[in-house]
Amino acid sequence: MHAWPASEVPALPGKGRDLQIHDTATQGTITLAPGPVARIYVCGITPYDATHIGHAATYNAFDLVQRVWLDTKRQVHYVQNVTDVDDPLLERALRDGHDWTELAERETALFREDMTALRMLPPQHYIGAVEAIPGIVPLVERLRDAGAAYELDGDVYFSVESDAHFGGVSNLDAEAMRLLSAERGGDPDRPGKKNPLDPMLWMAARPGEPSWDGGSLGRGRPGWHIECVAIALDHLGMGFDIQGGGSDLAFPHHEMGASHAQALTGEFPMAKAYVHAGMVALHGEKMSKSKGNLVFVSALRRAGVDPVAIRLALLSHHYRADWEWTDDVLAEAVARLERWRAAVSRPDGLPADALVEEVREALANDLDAPAALAAVDRWVDAQNASDGDDESAPGLVSRTVDALLGVAL
To answer: Would the pTM of this model clear 0.85, i.e. be above it?
Structure first.
């Protein structure tokens, strides 16, 4: 599966700072200092309702991570999946009378278009669950053969008790995990499971549903968590720098994925930092497919909204915050974009070297994009109120917000 085109990232003078970021597992801020190549895995979409503002906010956060690392003169190895076979996708296809593969392909293509328009840097490896099945099957077999998994009526489940570190990503108690498992695709009440929290690794073929050859597992399809584990281990290995996604993925998805990987390899941790973006609401409720209260990037674009303004709207909120999308949020972003473009369109202006460092410092401090925007706002206000004579300043400001914020002026 192919990703989307990469926009050029301008080079800035000097060098950026190492990233300090909030780690869900330790519940504190840690400093990441990768080697020459920084490694990041971000969980992708299940392609049946793409791309809503909640999606865009999440991928914007991890786009900033890439830009901070690139500014430190590192390379970035970024991997993202597409869960192109799963119960929600099949249910939506059945409800709407569509072929599930056509639905997945159409929504994935729309996601690519939106990511391109928003100038999100693409992953080096963009892998669908279906194409990952040949690598998933051996992992499930290894877990089963090692006693870390067991069969139940043809399905294969992972035993959470096989990983001594289980629970260390989300830091939730057993009852909270059980409730979230039931809400987020698990089956804690299924009779015969060793532990209610045990997640499915391989689902035996069901009538009328797609299935693949699973070798000794029989025909079926993979569970949700093992999909990302197989892709991450194949392309990044253990101990990569960031496992990222929305905050609703901390449990069960990232918790289970970490335990799968740790049981498979005997190494700990799967990722050095587990980083989660906040949820976006609309009309007082979390924006979600199940509620149907979605604002789509593609619909905004069709209505004539500049994608750069959409990106500025996302950047105006801290990535970890839960916030609400409103018409005012977008209007403020449109007005900010107009002010910024007017300020850099002048032939000269106020020196901007200090601004570069302010933006760098803000983003290195747990991706504080609102602080970065405020720094640019101050330069713009000063620029509009004075007669600077630095001919290089407007260009430097343009390159800075492009390189570090993904905002093209």
So the answer is: yes
Domains of the chain by start residue, with CATH: 327-405 (1.20.120.640)
Give φ, ψ of 153 to 5 degrees. 55, 40
Report the candidate in 289, 283, 309, 276 with the shortest Cα–Cα distance to residue 407: 309
List the pLDDT tens digit at each of the 409 positions of the chain: 999 999 999 999 999 999 999 999 999 999 999 999 999 999 999 999 889 999 999 999 999 999 999 999 999 999 999 999 999 999 999 999 999 999 999 999 999 999 999 999 999 999 999 999 999 999 999 999 999 999 999 999 999 999 999 999 999 999 999 999 999 999 999 999 999 999 999 999 999 999 999 999 999 999 999 999 999 999 999 999 999 999 999 999 999 999 999 999 999 999 999 999 999 998 877 766 666 779 999 999 999 999 999 999 999 999 999 999 999 999 999 999 999 999 999 999 999 999 999 999 999 999 999 999 999 999 999 998 887 788 999 999 999 999 999 999 9
Give, to the nearest 10 degrees, the angle between helix 393-405 and helix 327-344: 140
- Closest C-alpha among 224, 10, 6 to residue 112: 6
Is the backbone peptide bond immediately before 101 cis, with ω within 30 degrees of 0? no
Backbone angles phi, psi at 76, to 5 degrees: -125, 125
Q: Distance between CA 395 and CA 378 in Å, rounded?
A: 17
How many CB atoms are located within 10 Å of the residue 57 CB?
A: 23
Per DSSP, the three-state class of 104 is: helix
β-strand pairing of 155-158 with 200-204: antiparallel
For tokens 């992953």, what's the residue? 123
Would you say 46 and 83 are in contact if contact means Cβ atoms under 8 Å apart? yes
